[in-house]
Amino acid sequence: MNTERPPLLMLPGLLCDHAAWATAAAALPQYDCRVPAWGRLDTLDAMADHVLASTTEPRFALAGHSMGGRVALEVVRRAPHRVTHLALLDTGYQALPDGEAAEKERAGRAALLARAREAGMRAMGQVWATGMVHPDQVGTPLFATILDMIERSDPDQFAAQIHALLGRPDATSLLSDVRCPTLVLCARQDTWSPLARHEIMAGLIPQSVLHVVEHSGHMSPMERPQDVADAMRTWLARPMLCATSTGGRRA
């Protein structure tokens, strides 16, 4: 590991922990890779503040997967001067929609939480994770690893993170202000955060490169860790520019 490089913060998604990034991080040994834990933090704001408060270095590279990508954008909103590189993986940027779409999302998440409380986290994960991976991964050792990861959380943590996602802010106006080298990565078969959304994101971020990971679902850092690490290595090799020029508060 080259200690002269800024650390690489890898932000996990909903019910994910260090295991979500472990294999991709191992393929990037020259970087100081760190994965924060969300615990029972129940807003994206609180998660972003946690990332900033727990990182003593003045600057860092920032990668976020799924919910972690939304947290990454909130970190950029607060402290653009600290972010040297930004990667957004299988994620989104818009707030909860209005009307029927919002009610459908609330109901779906509430049903999963109810199953977690009644049958346990692993039983809930068996249903939920089936739609998060490529169909070829269901029932494999990797799928069991994902269930193990989900089982390390509890229903209260799940409830807190659902609350955070339902209250997510809209980051559309932030995207055009990002000035650091940015990787927008999406798996071809991601049905949770589809490629079309990432194409829009990449079009709105001036310094962005879009990378598509083939034969993977939403959990691309676990399903295709070498492909993800290769894309991140290329991204991290891009020269540092000034970070973003947003007017967000500094930390």
From TrEMBL:
Alphabetical list of Gene3D superfamilies matching this protein: alpha/beta hydrolase
SUPFAM superfamilies (UniProt xref): alpha/beta-Hydrolases
Residues that span the membrane, as ranges: none
GO molecular function, one term: hydrolase activity
Signal peptide feature range: none
Any Pfam family matching the protein: Abhydrolase_1
Domain AB hydrolase-1 span(s) in chain numbering: 40-225
Name listed for the protein in its UniProt record: Alpha/beta hydrolase
Organism encoding this protein: Pandoraea terrigena
